[in-house]
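Summary for the steering committee. The consortium agreed at its last meeting that each partner would contribute one worked example illustrating the joint modelling workflow. Our contribution is presented below. We chose a case with several input lines so that the handling of multiple components could be demonstrated. No manual editing was applied between input and output; the record is shown as generated.
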Amino acid sequence: MTALSSLSRGLAAPRGFVDASFHPPPGAIRLLAGIPAPEALPAEAIAEASAELWRDHDAAAAAVQYSPAQGFTGLREWIARREDVDPRRIVVTNGGMHGLTLAVLTVVERGATVAVDDPVFPGFLWALDVATTRILPVPVLADGFDVQHLAGRLAAGARIAAAYTVPDFHNPAQASLSAEKRHGLVELAERHGFYVIVDNPYRELRFAGQELGVAAFNESDRVIHVNTFTKTLGPGWRVGWLVLPEHLVEPVIRLRGRLDVHTSSVTQAIVERLVTRDDHWYDGVVRSATRLYRERAGVLVDALHEQLPGAFEIRAPEGGLFLWPRLTDDSIDPGALFRRAAANGVVYQQGEFFAADPEQLSSARHLRFAYSDRTPDELNEAVRRLAAAFPGGSR
Amino acid sequence: MTALSSLSRGLAAPRGFVDASFHPPPGAIRLLAGIPAPEALPAEAIAEASAELWRDHDAAAAAVQYSPAQGFTGLREWIARREDVDPRRIVVTNGGMHGLTLAVLTVVERGATVAVDDPVFPGFLWALDVATTRILPVPVLADGFDVQHLAGRLAAGARIAAAYTVPDFHNPAQASLSAEKRHGLVELAERHGFYVIVDNPYRELRFAGQELGVAAFNESDRVIHVNTFTKTLGPGWRVGWLVLPEHLVEPVIRLRGRLDVHTSSVTQAIVERLVTRDDHWYDGVVRSATRLYRERAGVLVDALHEQLPGAFEIRAPEGGLFLWPRLTDDSIDPGALFRRAAANGVVYQQGEFFAADPEQLSSARHLRFAYSDRTPDELNEAVRRLAAAFPGGSR
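What follows is the complete predicted structure of the assembly.
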């Protein structure tokens, strides 16, 4: 008589990320999640745009009523200009995860296999669970998703419905997919007839190196390109978007209309007002945020080099919200290190939580530090506490 | 190489409601959808609550960040008091349709059979499509869902995963489920081990007759009770809630966290501020709205009696947003009537769109008028245009 659907019975307990049952000691410095710095979010402009909305009688009346499933026209047009695509190809979502879910439900058959980044953003596996738990882990190298590896697996007979990757400032592995491999991945998808689910929430947050472009993604009819305002205007809005191939627009709109009708008209109206207030406003928000994240990334990297010289192999981030250093001393037990660090008052994500292939032990040698919402003082203190947790460190 | 999932391939074109390809003539009076009257939505209070939020530094900072998948605590507590349940059993949703989708995905096995109202709110069938298209239509009588009919089908061997009904001011059939049958339905579910998905968006909008209560639903561990602020604060918020049996709370939170993380913190923060501003504010909003809807229902019923005497069997609504009159003259072709009415400048929903059992022709003898967002003058004019579309009416 227990009549839960097999879907809800079968949903694996979320893997990835510090266990929900783990409670960091009070006062612990949390380097846990890719949360935008509160001071990087445009509080004043939000208050103004919101006040303007409610003062504008017609716009206010529209904001509390139903609106089209595809999203607000002005917002889609603004997004389409930035993505350099036709606005018809944009569907507004309730943020990045919702975009991933829509992508999965649209192109992943129940029980199908999906190639995923290894290490992988665990949230994608949670979304994927709605359709399948069968994955084909593909290593993420210094220049991103290993397209050659996937090509080899496909040549050897593997069949996949989709491939999932974060191409810019990978979570957790920092890597960005090279321009060449962007084209290679898309060509592979076109040749084999699978879809690429491109998850791009950090794309705007570049503070070093060269932009790699997204035209390869947006020009292919085998790519669902997922993005969100979460990292720039805040996760609380739950407003994101999909860039879809023409032939997927109708199926996705139909599906999302059935799931939840449309994204809040209120949040769309405010976000639309924000981004369209002038041509440079959004770029300004992104610029201040990246300035802040560059500083924080720098402080963290410097502190690790200074206080724990040689303890990690570190690549300086070129953008995004994460540092993914590798422990150089193979005799260190990362679990024990984490417990000592937590006892000392600093918590982060253990690399093992991001392993797509549990047999693959390389992720477990990494730590993921999220630096975006911590001040330079906190970051320095966090590394001090971490250093004290290392064998021989003073506790 | 077409690799759409069978879900997205299989989604039936939405049935129910005026065809999307149908374009009413310009100037037509639309009696199409259960849309709250703009003047019934508390514009001033919304502007104030929103301004307060963005002025409150801590609350504003929280509103643009992530928040718990289950929903804002203060909002859940307020809802729980009105539902007379423990706040742990409340999960905030992105509105009623999202609540229905979560309910379906949680308790309806793929391909399972679900008993549904006949006539039925077509939106539920769209949500249901995500899991199954197998339905067992159950007639909606003057006192609601025919529990005896379902009991008979179950006794004869039918097996269902869930039963779906709108218990208060049924869409489209106006009926409210009697107090006795509320208990009867719940007992049947408990005995046979299925879930009842109770869809209750109109519950607050009673303007005549006696409240029937929801304790029978909220006290059973076989009921998912779905509600929303759509009809009282506006559809644009996309904020609703589920009252869940204890054992479904965790599965639903897990599932919804995977689908889209959480409902917008911004909309929850504003709605929470609105409803908790004082103990009687929300009741006042509901009272003004129902006063308006009572007047409009009355105008519509009176106009039909006056201008089309005897043409319909009409029950005066006791609440909600719809009138479901039945054509008394069996020689009238409802499709032809609709086309003439549309040509005359009035559109409504044809009864046939709500038939859960396409063999059952009784729904097709009905018209569904949505009166909530039309003024008395518009309603009178609408009936004048309708009258002119009747055989013998002057065109």
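The two ends of chain A are 54 Å apart (CA to CA). The longest helix of chain A spans residues 281-307.
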